[in-house]
């Protein structure tokens, strides 16, 4: 058994350089999408274990910034339970940022905006689709791609006005009777969201 | 083999074994069906949630080889067993990451979601475990539950970089360990100024009255909860897929064992009949002749 072990070690030592070279040439296209420093460091620590995949290798690379302003804006609107809009080319989106409604056109400067509860509208030609968004983030990249990540969104025509009024009344009452800071904060959030819902229905 | 003369006893033993192996086969087949039906439901939800973390990586890039002082490894494992090797793979990857990210000035801690990971890591790295969470899948995984959990983790743990380790579901038979790195706002700013792989964070205008650091803080927390949600769903899918294939190979093994036992049983039975017949016939021929 020891004799075999010695032989196996020798053969592995001899095969390792050649094997690594063969692996390198085979994996170059994949390595380009991965972080090579990470994979190298990993190989030193755990040579027998395959390195875990990282997000870069799992998603499509984004296109670079074009020289001239493109005609359309590419929108990705994602929610935790589905991708509402994926890679759709539109003319304009209006997002409810904390500073107010922000219009995003193709060629908009790169921006990170935090969203507050409000209406998100997507304009494509003459169609306008409106969603009520609870909160989230909107990123506009230099290559005219807009990513909107929201926690919850519903199309505005699916909101029940009666329930909105009732909710607004409930939370205003709770705000009045709240004693601790936590209760006040929760009631305030409820009032904000419901007033935004109200505005969405009327506006 | 059975002792001489104990003919009927040996067939009894084999028959008992056959009965228990048949029961095991029924149980494993049922577990496979249950896992398959649960998998169908979770798989649609997982695929729908895959778009959630992509905007963050598009904005901030990915820096798995970032060098920071405080690393926290969040390992997502399952609570129940009988799911093949996925939990061991996650634990092995976490241990290697721990080795990779510990050093003279750096330290690395674990946050473990799921019983199976806790049991394996408590054995040798108990001091590095910061917190453990179990019973993740008591109710179907939803975003609110994960957001609360993410908030809990962020409150109790100091970090410069969070590394979330889970098994990504590629297909029913293929699950690859995946690691997502989330940087704390301070480190993200430092990396973007140093011009690393983070991409040009400074090129982005910050909309809003709040300061850049507040927005980056909210961004990091939101990113963590989104990544954790997707990771938990992918791991749940991988667990069900692994359980399906483990139970499938179990029932196939049980079937093979049953075939072999049936042959042994028949052979033993026929041998005992032959022996009895031989005795009777030789006795009868002895009486005649």
TrEMBL record, chain A:
It comes from the Eukaryota. Keywords: ATP synthesis, CF(1), Hydrogen ion transport, Ion transport, Membrane, Mitochondrion, Mitochondrion inner membrane, Transit peptide, Transport. Gene3D superfamilies: ATP synthase delta/epsilon subunit, C-terminal domain, F0F1 ATP synthase delta/epsilon subunit, N-terminal. InterPro entries: ATP_synth_F1_dsu/esu, ATP_synth_F1_dsu/esu_N, ATPsynth_dsu/esu_N. Belongs to the ATPase epsilon chain family. F-type ATPases have 2 components, CF(1) - the catalytic core - and CF(0) - the membrane proton channel. CF(1) has five subunits: alpha(3), beta(3), gamma(1), delta(1), epsilon(1). CF(0) has three main subunits: a, b and c. This is ATP synthase subunit delta', mitochondrial. It comes from Digitaria exilis. The lineage of its organism: Eukaryota, Viridiplantae, Streptophyta, Embryophyta, Tracheophyta.
Automatic annotation (TrEMBL), chain B:
NCBIfam families: ATPsyn_F1gamma. The lineage of its organism: Eukaryota, Viridiplantae, Streptophyta, Embryophyta, Tracheophyta. Mitochondrial membrane ATP synthase (F(1)F(0) ATP synthase or Complex V) produces ATP from ADP in the presence of a proton gradient across the membrane which is generated by electron transport complexes of the respiratory chain. F-type ATPases consist of two structural domains, F(1) - containing the extramembraneous catalytic core, and F(0) - containing the membrane proton channel, linked together by a central stalk and a peripheral stalk. During catalysis, ATP synthesis in the catalytic domain of F(1) is coupled via a rotary mechanism of the central stalk subunits to proton translocation. Keywords: ATP synthesis, CF(1), Hydrogen ion transport, Ion transport, Membrane, Mitochondrion, Mitochondrion inner membrane, Transit peptide, Transport. It is a peripheral membrane protein. PROSITE patterns: ATPASE_GAMMA. This is ATP synthase subunit gamma, mitochondrial. GO terms for cellular component: mitochondrial inner membrane; proton-transporting ATP synthase complex. It is found in: Mitochondrion inner membrane. HAMAP family: ATP_synth_gamma_bact. Belongs to the ATPase gamma chain family. One of its GO terms (molecular function) is proton-transporting ATP synthase activity, rotational mechanism. The keyword Transit peptide applies.
